[in-house]
Write a structure and sequence with these properties.
Glucose Oxidase, domain 1, 8-stranded mixed beta sheet, two-stranded antiparallel ribbon, 9 helices
Length: about 250
C-alpha cells in the first residue's frame, strides 16, 4: 500500500509536465544523460501517432495506470469476457486509471462503431477511471467530458453497433503505442506516451531538471539581440549537430 501511495503521488507530479517533456525524458540520447533511456524515436512503440487527439485540452496533462481492453466483431462460438469483468479490473487497479482500448476491426468499422459511451463511462469514472485512450470512435462525448473524463480518440459518432471484448488486461496497440496492463500512460494535446512503473521516479526527476533548463533557454532567447546571440543559444540547446559546418557557410 505504501508503494502504491508513493507511485500515485509521483503520477500526480508527472501531470504538472507536458507529454512532450515526459517523452524527451524517456528517449535515448547522449545529449541529456539524465534521461531514462527507454526508447528510440520512431523505432519503438512507446507513444501514439497523430491519428488521435485529446478532446479536452483544458483538463491539462493526465496520467494513470493502464487497464487494457481489446474489442472487435462478434465471433461465432466465442464466449467473450463481460463488461462487468472490466469494471472489476478498474476497481482493483491502482488509481487513477487510464483505460486503453484497442478496436480490432477494419478501419471503416473502427471509425463508425462506438464501443464506449456515457452511462458505462460514468460507471468507469466512479470506479477510478479518469481517461480513455482508444483508436476507435466513441459516443456521448459531451456527457463524458462533463464527467471529467479525458478522451484521446480519433472522433465521436452518434450510433453504435454490436461488438465484443476479445481480451482484458493483455497487451494492446493503440495508434502505434503498445501498452500492457499496469503501465503508466501520460497524455495531453501532444499525444500519449507509456512508461514502466519503475521508471516513473527517474522520469519525474528528469522532467523537473529539463523544465528549469528550458525556462533558462527562453530567458536567454528573450535577452538575445544579435544573430550570433541566437545561434549560441541554439547550439547550447543541442540543436546544432554540425556547428563547424555552419561556421564555414
Amino acid at each position: 500500500m505504501e508503494q502504491i501511495q508513493k507511485e500515485t503521488a509521483i503520477i500526480r507530479e508527472l501531470e504538472k509536465y507536458s507529454t512532450s517533456t515526459i517523452a524527451i525524458c524517456m528517449q535515448r540520447g547522449k545529449d541529456y544523460q539524465k534521461r531514462a533511456q527507454l526508447f528510440d524515436s520512431r523505432k519503438d512503440k512507446w507513444y501514439t501517432d497523430a491519428s488521435l487527439r485529446v478532446q479536452s485540452p483544458e483538463f491539462g496533462p493526465r496520467a494513470g495506470y493502464a487497464v487494457t481492453m481489446r474489442v472487435g466483431l462478434p465471433v461465432e462460438g466465442y464466449v467473450p469476457p463481460t463488461r462487468a469483468e472490466l469494471l472489476k479490473l478498474i476497481d482493483a487497479s491502482p488509481k487513477p486509471v487510464v483505460l486503453v482500448m484497442q478496436v480490432d476491426e477494419p478501419e471503416a468499422m473502427r471509425l463508425s462503431d462506438s464501443n464506449f459511451g456515457g452511462q458505462f463511462g460514468y460507471l468507469c469514472k466512479q470506479l477510478g477511471m479518469e481517461s480513455l485512450v482508444s483508436d476507435g470512435a466513441i459516443r456521448d462525448i459531451k456527457e463524458l467530458q462533463d464527467f471529467g473524463i479525458q478522451l484521446m480518440i480519433p472522433g465521436s459518432i452518434a450510433a453504435t453497433a454490436p461488438s465484443v471484448i476479445y481480451e482484458l488486461n493483455g497487451t494492446v496497440n493503440v495508434a502505434g503505442m503498445e501498452v500492457s496492463a499496469g503501465d503508466i500512460v501520460h497524455m495531453d494535446l501532444d499525444g500519449a506516451v507509456k512508461m514502466p512503473r519503475e521508471a516513473a521516479e527517474q522520469v519525474l526527476a528528469c522532467a523537473k531538471v529539463l523544465e528549469e533548463e528550458e525556462k533558462a533557454s527562453y530567458e536567454r532567447i528573450d535577452k538575445a539581440q544579435t544573430l550570433d546571440d541566437y545561434l549560441q543559444v541554439f547550439y547550447d540547446m543541442g540543436y546544432g549537430l554540425n556547428k563547424k559546418k555552419d561556421d564555414e557557410q
